[in-house]
Amino acid sequence: MKKPALHWIEEGQGPTVVLSHALGCDISMWDGVADLLKSRYTVLRYDHRGHGASEAVPGPYNMDMLADDAASLISARAAGPVHFVGLSLGGMTAQALAARYPQLLKSMVIANAASWYDEAARGLWQARVKTVLEQGVAAIADGAMQRWFTPEFRADQLHGGAQRVAALRRQLERTDAAAYAASCEAVAGIDFRSSNLGIACPALVIAGTRDEATPLAMSQLMADAIPGARLRTLEAAHLSAVEQPEGFARLLTEFFESVE
């Protein structure tokens, strides 16, 4: 199957940190965190297949394909193992990457993600796929904003929260509908419960205490399964790195320092 051409940006200097974004987002999701990291780290961000400026190759997609995409980029751009940070879809990619390419990871951070979905949850993903294919991505945008951000962040005109929400909504609505649906199918099919038990690199799990999409209990399951993993929380909804970039970056740097 054809490998997509991925869009990426590399900034800064120092140990390489790869940032992998959420479903329906693009590399701009990481703007705040990247700005805080790039004085000390080489920050490599990329758009998932079918997102942002990356190629929207035909589906179906699965999480192994997304891990292969990330592995190809890391092999091409990094001199050695990297700190891999994934949020939501990116956090699922991280788990697949750790299972398939452990030699590429110095450490991994899984934020606002899940390791598997039960039958009821998979049914909700299938319903979203149907809506997007029939009505377009804009049809699910209102619900996405409610999951992604707390009400106060969505309403925050003074500090730029409302503007960030509007920009990320526009990005979501620009996402190729077929690629978004194929990515939903990839997410719905995940099950890392066994492979997470064998992860050998240092791992940090970050949860949003107000995340209704991937609640704290899902993060706790991952932290309990991955040997030696640490669990930390931020007062945020699903896109914690957007709502709390300073807090998110602080958790990362503390973790990276402990690994280095």
Question: Which features would summarize this protein structure in a list?
Answer:
alpha/beta; Rossmann fold; 7-stranded mixed beta sheet; 11 helices; globular
How would you sum up this structure, described in words?
The chain has 260 residues and is an alpha/beta fold. The chain has one domain: 3-Layer(aba) Sandwich (Rossmann fold). 46% of the residues lie in helices and 15% in strands. The chain has eleven helices and seven strands. The protein has a seven-stranded mixed β-sheet with strand order 1-3-2-4-5-6-7, with helices on both faces. Strand 2, helix 1 and strand 3 form a beta-alpha-beta unit. 48% of the residues are buried. The mean pLDDT is 97.
TL;DR of this structure?
It is built from eleven helices and seven strands. The protein is α/β, with parallel strands linked by helices and 260 residues long. It has a single domain, classed as Rossmann fold (3-Layer(aba) Sandwich), CATH 3.40.50.1820.
Tell me the count of domains.
1
Tell me the distance between the termini: 37 Å
Pattern of helices and strands: EEHEHEHEHHHHHEHEHH
**Major sheet:** 7 strands, mixed
Structural class: alpha/beta
Question: What is the name of the CATH architecture?
Answer: 3-Layer(aba) Sandwich
CATH superfamily: Alpha/Beta hydrolase fold, catalytic domain
The CATH topology comes to: Rossmann fold
Unreliable spans are none
CATH class: Alpha Beta
* Mean of all residue-level pLDDT scores: 97
Task: Draw up the topology in text.
Blueprint: E1 8-12, E2 16-20, H1 31-37, E3 42-46, H2 63-77, E4 82-87, H3 89-100, E5 105-111, H4 119-135, H5 141-148, H6 151-155, H7 161-174, H8 177-188, E6 203-208, H9 216-225, E7 230-234, H10 240-243, H11 245-259
Parallel strand pairs: 2-3, 2-4, 4-5, 5-6, 6-7
Antiparallel strand pairs: 1-3
Helix pairs in contact: 1-11, 2-3, 4-8
